[in-house]
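Course assignment 3, question 2. Fill in each field.
Student: A.L.
Task: Predict the tertiary structure for the chain below.
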Amino acid sequence: MTAGYSTRFTRRNSVAGSSKSTWFKRPGILPGFWPAFSYSVLYLTLIVLIPLSAVFLKAATAGWSKIWDTISSPRVVAAYKVTFGASFAAAVASVVIGFLIAWALTRYKFPGRAAMDALVDIPFALPTAVAGISLTSIYAPNGWLGRYLEPLGIKVAFTPLGITIALIFIGLPFVVRSVQPVLEDADHEIEEAASSLGASRWQVFRLVLLPAFRPALLTGFALAFARGLGEYGSVVFISGNLPMKTEIAPLLIIAKLEQYDYAGAAAIAVAMLLASFLMLFGINAIQGRSRRFMETKLS
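Answer field:
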């Protein structure tokens, strides 16, 4: 009995020890975990943590009362509402449109598919100021499309709708490139098996395909949303920069810097950073839960 207990105790300790040793190091073909891990931490510290810490420290020099007065002023709160609202709406629209584009590129063969695939990446290479000027010239009241929309009562330029369109233009490639590899690797036999069991097309899409694509869609949504929060060049032209109406938070940060109010600019940046982190953390938590659910379901 003592021997059996010691055997179980030894096995339990060996399992616990192996789990602790592999918590930082996973077995792989190529050696060199610690150099790679150390360089990763070093670069993240230099590129991400130190600049963000500097923003927090700069905001703290103004004192808590001034920080609160800055981030709670009506103009800044209105800019937060425009920025987060337009970014969220643009991310949702980008998920829908991006999924349809990725579906067409991966599931069908048609003339010009390669050109269409290349067009998706144009917002990555195009300067954001050029995108803003182009969108403004198109949707302005005397623009190519704006002159036809204006008589219908649809005003795009210098409205939150124009900001949303500009953010869709910027965020759409993130969704397409996040979903496209998953669609390409999807197993068509699962769809055929569901169809052979009597499932309709809508049931196959909703019950079979959508759960598998949900993590990629959430990733694309998070990337598009985060990109929209910090966008400046493509929005500043089409928004019109009307205080309390179409003014975005990045523009207020630039205005504070031009007024040499570095602490005020840092305070607005910190508030945006904290709100963005909380929202992205929630999205990543939902994404991780969805991925674990799919792994459990498939196993």
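Instructor remarks: Confidence is low (pLDDT under 50) at residues 1-22. The two ends are 36 Å apart (CA to CA).
Grade: pending
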